[in-house]
Amino acid sequence: MITLYGFGPAFGLPDPSPYVMKTEVQLKMAGLGYLKVAGDLEKAPKGKLPYLDDDGQVVADSTFIRLHLEESYGLDFDEGLSPADRARAWAVERMIEDHLGWALGYCRWLIPENFANGPAHFFDDVPEPAREQVRADVQAEVRQAMTAHGVARHSLAEIAGLADRSLASLSTLLADKVFVMGERPTSVDAAAFSFLAGIYCEAFPSPVRDAAFAYPNLVAYSERMMRMFFPQYTRQAQDAA
After folding, report:
1. N or C end of the chain, less CB within 10 A?
2. pTM of the model
3. What is the pLDDT of residues 197-225, one digit of tens each?
4. SS3 for the chain, per residue?
């Protein structure tokens, strides 16, 4: 039995973590049955989510989870791609996670209004006398990490400009295709969709989100992928609820 440890639904998303969403999409792409439960960061092998327990074998980090699934179940998420296209898919995935993802994180954690409306609620269960201090301490840790990375050394306008370059690149690569690499979903789609869904989330307005709406093909792609993998979270489904 495969158990996926994530955060759970929040802010109108299947999971607030695009890394958890990425892994969940890959499990769905593979047609593997799984149970998703709320994870505890203190018990997570690397102190982060997602991690996966596959009949006692624990695997942490979405990229290593993908490798585990491919090796253990005879899968190839990039089946049919040429060596050059596999290289492109990996490069795009890294651009999304290691560049665009930092802009997404900044907008959630370091724009004060977004932090108050979003990540601050992760600590609602902390006893009230300590709650605000815990929130401040964790936000400070995030800021320190983002400063070490470099993204928090820029202005918000500069961050949005850098993010826009990645969005423009992804839009150009997607063009009018159904999926990033062609007519079937591959590994890069799990990442691209999950991070775009996070950027388009209504709970977190930002210049990065505004920039993303300038690319109609990315908007349509994100909505298409949501209908395919999480139909209960489409706008139509939410409106009907």
Report:
1. C
2. 0.94
3. 999 999 999 999 999 999 999 999 999 99
4. CEEEEECCCECCECCCCHHHHHHHHHHHHHCCCCEEEECCCCCCCCCCCCEEEECCEEEECHHHHHHHHHHHHCCCCCCCCCHHHHHHHHHHHHHHHHHHHHHHHHHHHCCHHHHHHCHHHHHCCCCHHHHHHHHHHHHHHHHHHHHHHCHHHCCHHHHHHHHHHHHHHHHHHHCCCCECCECCCCHHHHHHHHHHHHHHCCCCCCHHHHHHCCCHHHHHHHHHHHHHHCHHHCHHHHHHC
